[in-house]
Amino acid sequence: MLKLAEFDYPLPKELIAQYPLEKREEARLLVLDRRAQTIQHKVFKELGGFLNKNDLLVLNDTKVLLCRLIGKKTTGGKVEILLTRRQNGTTFSCLLQPSRTKTGEKILFAGGQITGILSSRGHISFKQEDANRIYNFGIVPLPPYIKREPEDLDKLYYQTVYAKHEGALASPTAGLHFTDESLQEIKQAGVNIAYVTLHVGLGTFRPVKCENILEHKMESENFVVPDATVEAVAKAKKDGGRIIAVGTTSLRALETYAAAGRKEGNTDLFIYPGYKFQLVDALLTNFHLPMTTLFMLVCAFAGKEFMQKAYREAVEQKYRFYSYGDAMLII
Asked: Which of 107, 137, 167 is the last residue of a domain?
């Protein structure tokens, strides 16, 4: 039995980053060496010093949807809707705030240009042409711990520079620190870059509720490991390079492929201490909320005690936490 309380840690609220840094690569970088059990304090733009020729950096190229919508009831009341999945051509599953709404009720968006109808509890339907353009009227779905309304800057900073395939409800935040220039420098140093797609869902923020974490059920997320990435992984292994996952989502996509042999589909892979990693040799990640599956994953990768020590040190050194916060490299 693994107790939930083992994955808690104290964090002063003022360390939760509310805004991104103006320069992505200026974030701090906490470097953990698992073999030497050492902790170093660096800056993200020094990442290249920890990468070797023939290493493979695997990035998640999912793109965050502008899936948060502000609408009005016909009575004038404000409604906030988060579109969580497109079920078919015209219907989306959604979360509503406030939740006191009725089936058949109309919700107006974009100043009345678009009308949605609550088709059943947790679902909203549009005309076909409106369903195709509804995201054009959405705003950035910032995480709940960012205590402000989205601003124009979030459209840029809450998206990775290499985001390509739309479908995420949250950003794969480890990748937010890269710029086009830094990726080019990494390539020029002989490090290879490959991509996976895993559409990050809302479960990424949700704390585990079970006292025994082994009882927890993961929400499934859609992923693709392209053939080119499969080939790049094989080549890196052959050439003696490391597979470095950028973010827990990239890691889970790669480990799902390694464990199940599936290159696409849905994954509900839950990684916690005791898991045997099959493919990934190093991990670049941000700091994660306590008692979440993401924190359990990094504890599995680096060791629970070592990770708790690293987080204590990060708090003492006043690192910036979570989506817009600093980064960690585990080698």
From this structure: 137
